[in-house]
Write a structure and sequence with these properties.
The chain has about 375 residues and is an all-alpha fold. The protein is about 75% helix and about 0% strand.
Length: about 375
């Protein structure tokens, strides 16, 4: 009976390999319910190592589909994951199936911390992701994202900064907007949860190389991605960690002084977000740089829309400077505030209308920033 049982099981496997269908998996499970995972791998050993690409693909697909429905011990899961990771060096037509299978295991099975780190390391070390087709690259990114979603602490404690460095190398050079949407989301997680000591500049380079977003979606794109979508997610990366502040503010100043109007407008939007997100201690040393850029445009620029954006930045800037946190953190921006208000007082004495209006707009922007900002303007202007 044991021999008959084995024959029926192997026949069911052969039937699937000749013509794979979902229904045939049930027959394999029925005849193979007494088999262990290792037994099953042994049965498929010839097909998994076949020289025919399609045969290997079918065998790996069968292995994943069946084992995901089997009761497995932690040790068996570990062995199977290691086996699948070892196949990541296979041909490009087999890799997508392995990536999808690993993602399913991450999502559906309880994994030990060491196994989680094994998957991440093998993706980083064994797969040349940028050499793959777009949809296969997306599968690789989805697997990393699944690991971050389900096992973030395992990766942080088991790999730490090494995970971030390997991640940077993995995504370096990615250009497809569909993939970038996911990459920007993952980058936010890394900035918020992983140590980036000593690699802040490298992490910043990963983000800044895509700024500003310049993308027009083709009409035939199956999953539409807009410039606004990409810009929003990229901005989320900039504001995710105040450790980036020393790099971000000079960078945005450079972009603000670009010859391209859209770049200048976009830099103002990002600047507002960063001022709000970073808070006082990380922003205060850059206020002179920001103020000089905004002041020059408000008084000397000709584009009304850009002027309005600059005024909004001024409001965000003074919201930081007049925050209660300033005194609590022992910071004293009073000298800067005095210089700004001295500048405004000087302009108010001019009779030329070209100075009066922009000066008034600046003061209104300061009033909008906070109650303290409103009080400072009242103290300066009222007798």
């Amino acid at each position: 009976s044991t021999l008959l049982y084995t024959i029926k099981f192997e026949d069911a496997c052969d039937d699937y390999l000749r013509e794979p269908t979902g229904e045939k998996v049930s027959a394999i499970l029925y005849h193979g319910h007494k088999y262990s995972v290792l037994d099953f791998v042994e049965v498929l050993q010839t097909e998994i190592t076949s020289k025919e690409d399609n045969m290997r693909l079918n065998a790996v697909t069968l292995l994943i589909d069946v084992t995901l429905q089997m009761a497995m011990s932690d040790a068996e899961v570990k062995v199977l994951i290691e086996f699948l990771c070892g196949r990541l060096s296979d041909k490009y037509n087999v890799i997508p199936t392995i990536l999808t299978g690993l993602s399913r295991f991450v999502q559906e099975r309880k994994l030990q911390p060491a196994t989680v780190c094994t998957i991440a390391k093998e993706i980083f070390n064994s797969v040349d992701v940028q050499a793959l087709h777009q949809d296969t690259r997306l599968k690789a990114y989805c697997l990393i994202n699944d690991l971050l979603q389900k096992h973030l602490m395992c990766l942080k404690e088991g790999m730490g900064t090494k995970f971030v460095v390997n991640y940077i190398n993995l995504v370096d050079g990615e250009q497809d907007p569909r993939n970038l949407m996911l990459i920007f989301n993952m980058t936010v997680k890394l900035l918020q949860h992983f140590p980036i000591d000593g690699i802040e500049d490298t992490m910043f380079d990963v983000i800044s190389c895509y700024y500003p977003v310049d993308f027009t979606p083709p009409p035939d794109m199956e999953v539409p991605v807009t410039t606004e979508d990409l810009t929003s997610r990229l901005n989320n990366c900039f504001v995710a960690s105040d450790r980036l502040a020393p790099h971000v503010f000079p960078f945005l100043s450079e972009k603000f002084n670009s010859s391209l109007m859209q770049t200048r407008m976009q830099s103002c939007e990002t600047l507002k977000l960063c001022l709000s997100a970073y808070g006082t201690s990380c922003s205060v040393e850059h206020v002179t740089l920001i103020w000089n850029d905004m002041k020059q445009e408000i008084f000397g620029g000709v584009n009304r829309d850009l002027r309005q954006k600059c005024l909004e930045v001024v409001t965000a800037l003074f919201a930081v400077l007049t925050s209660p946190n300033v005194k609590q953190k022992g910071l004293d921006p009073s000298q800067f505030l005095e210089r700004v208000f001295d500048f405004c007082k000087e302009k108010l004495t001019y009779s030329e209308a070209k100075f009066l209006r922009p000066n008034a707009l600046i003061l209104i922007s300061v009033i909008k920033s906070s109650g303290s900002g409103c009080g400072l303007v009242a103290e300066m202007c009222l007798p």
